[in-house]
Specification:
Layout lengths: L2 E3 L6 E3 L1 E4 L19 H13 L4 E3 L9 H12 L7 E6 L14 H15 L4 E6 L8 H13 L3 E7 L3 H14 L4 E7 L11 H8 L2 E5 L29 H7 L2 H17 L3 H10 L7 E4 L3 H8 L8 H10 L8 H8 L3
Parallel strand pairs: 3-4, 3-10, 4-5, 5-6, 6-7, 7-8, 8-9
Antiparallel strand pairs: 1-2
């Protein structure tokens, strides 16, 4: 396992991060729509990740009923005496209780959600607190001042955001500088060979201002796992075969996505590696990426994903993957690229 700084902060995290979205036996109404692992399996997954040197776990208050994933993760850290060697990240923003203040990133919400997460995870601090999505109804300054307070109180050590637009993230960076507030050190965002939109603005923004990118859904919901074939539909037992995930599968069922799948399988065959390992290895080499978040419902999936660290992609491999996954830049990026060769 190798360890990287989270952005330009001093925090070092494993280059692979264990996503805890699946932890705990969730029901059909949960965030994961019944795609989960029971507590015993979740403990075994975290045990194996720890053995492999993964020191970074990412969860959220909305994963499972009443913070189920946080509670499972907290019990594991306590039973294994693993708190001191675990970098624990969680997220808040989406609805956790009824009423007008049950969702969002107001000061009231941030203070209460931090206290609730600390209680569920049985810890006195959160290593990385992330806003799960920007809140267009709350001024960014109110949000940042509340986040600054919980950091100064010692309840949170580092701050990050997720699912932010580039304009809002830029505003946040400059408000932090001008008001001398704690700043975001990481951006968690959807990023994979299939979904590369981040490269237009967010990636150069993060490079310029020292935020580490934490890709989520690095296998495009499992499409790049090697389980899927063009024209055959989702196999039984896979995530995309479930009713709740069929819409996502339809979104990926296009020529570009299948070209990417074919390219990943080609490189994987040449490398004698799994498609998942190749897809993760590609992300690990992208600019500003600090750690790649992968989910697992079995110990075997942890082992398979960890093999990404052993995959060494050549320039030829990268060209094969980049060409297959190329995407339309759109204006003004394509105009700038035509003039200067980059944007």
């Amino acid at each position: 396992m190798d360890y990287r700084r989270l952005g330009t902060s001093g925090l070092k995290v494993s280059s692979l991060c264990l996503g805890a979205m699946t932890f705990g036996q969730a029901d059909e109404k949960s965030f994961m729509h019944n795609a989960s692992a029971d507590e015993a399996t979740s403990f075994a997954i975290m045990d194996r990740a720890r053995e492999l040197g993964i020191n970074f776990i990412d969860t959220a208050d909305v994963y499972g009923q009443d913070g189920l994933s946080e509670r499972v993760t907290g019990r594991w850290m306590k039973e294994r005496s693993a708190r001191n060697d675990t970098v624990i990240a969680t997220k808040m923003r989406f609805r956790m209780w009824d009423g007008p203040n049950g969702a969002g990133s107001s000061r009231l919400r941030i203070v209460r959600c931090v206290e609730d997460s600390l209680r569920r995870m049985q810890t006195d601090h959160i290593d990385l607190l992330q806003l799960h999505m920007q809140d267009v109804e709350v001024e960014e300054e109110e949000t940042l001042r509340a986040l600054d307070d919980v950091v100064r109180q010692g309840k949170v050590l580092y701050l990050g955001c997720s699912n932010y637009t580039a304009y809002r993230l830029t505003e946040s960076v400059f408000l932090s500088r001008m008001q001398h507030l704690e700043r975001f050190v990481a951006l968690q965002a959807q990023y994979s060979l299939v979904v590369r939109d981040l490269e237009r603005e967010h990636q150069p923004l993060c490079e310029r201002y020292g935020l580490g990118i934490l890709p989520w859904s690095p296998l495009a919901g499992g499409l790049l796992s090697g389980k899927y074939e063009r024209g055959t539909g989702a196999p039984e037992g896979t995530r995309f075969a479930t009713k709740r995930w069929q819409t996502n599968y339809a979104r990926f069922d296009n020529d570009r996505a299948w070209r990417i799948v074919d390219a990943v399988k080609k490189v994987a065959s040449e490398k004698e590696a799994s498609p998942a390992a190749v897809a993760l290895a590609w992300l690990l080499g992208r600019r500003a990426v600090s750690s790649v978040i992968f989910g697992a419902r079995t110990v075997a999936q942890v082992d398979d994903n960890a093999k990404a660290l052993d995959v060494k992609l050549t320039e030829v491999d990268l060209k094969t993957l980049d060409d297959a996954s190329s995407f339309e830049l759109g204006y003004p990026y394509d105009f700038m690229k035509s003039v200067q060769g980059k944007w």
